Amino acid sequence: MAEVHTMTALLDVHVPSKRFGDRRVLDNFSLTLEAGEIVSLVGASGCGKSTLLRIVAGLDREHDGTVTLKGQPQHGVSRDIGVIFQEPRLLPWLTVAQNVGFDADAARARDPHVFTLLEEVGLSQVADALPKALSGGMAQRVAIARGLFNRPPLLLLDEPFSAVDAFTRIRLQELLLAIAREHDTTLLLVTHDVDEAAWLSDRVIVMGGGRVLDEVTITEQRPRSRRSPALTEARNRILEILEGAHVL
Fold it and tell me: Into how many domains does the chain fold?
């Protein structure tokens, strides 16, 4: 009999309600991620995607929901959750290596783990450079390395490639996927880019009005062709859901 492999739930989130003043931004929202999954949240601006990410990251605790990681309730920022923002947010007075290691101490910046991460993102040659010497794509690669520094099982990404050009975005998507597989990292990604969501993800959660409108499962095996019929079908389905909800 063939061996059966089952995934283990890594993250469970349930937020009955989240408000900013009179505006409800999350409404009876639930999400479960399995270990090793890549899941994208797609929807119009203001639908609650980034708010949800902040709640999972422990950066927003003003809500009545629950976040459980590896079976343990989360009540704040955790070393088991890495975060990559839309902007790299590098500290300009620290070197690339110091930014990755979260430490201005020179000895810590020479940590072999830091240089392993920089090699993986192709930046070991600029370890001693300051952020001002980097291009936008290079700075975001530093942010990816920093997000992985604590070896988190879960990495959250909030529009991480929206500020770079299309060609750099494709290279960064491929880099992110390769590194996630190398580190066995689960990814939860917020994006407005339907093509990005379809190519990267195992599942795409389509949001509207703070709720889950629908979910699209991507069955295409990796490595994927960006022009494959299966991805085209998935993109069309995502757009159909958004159009049906009058989001587009």
Answer: 1
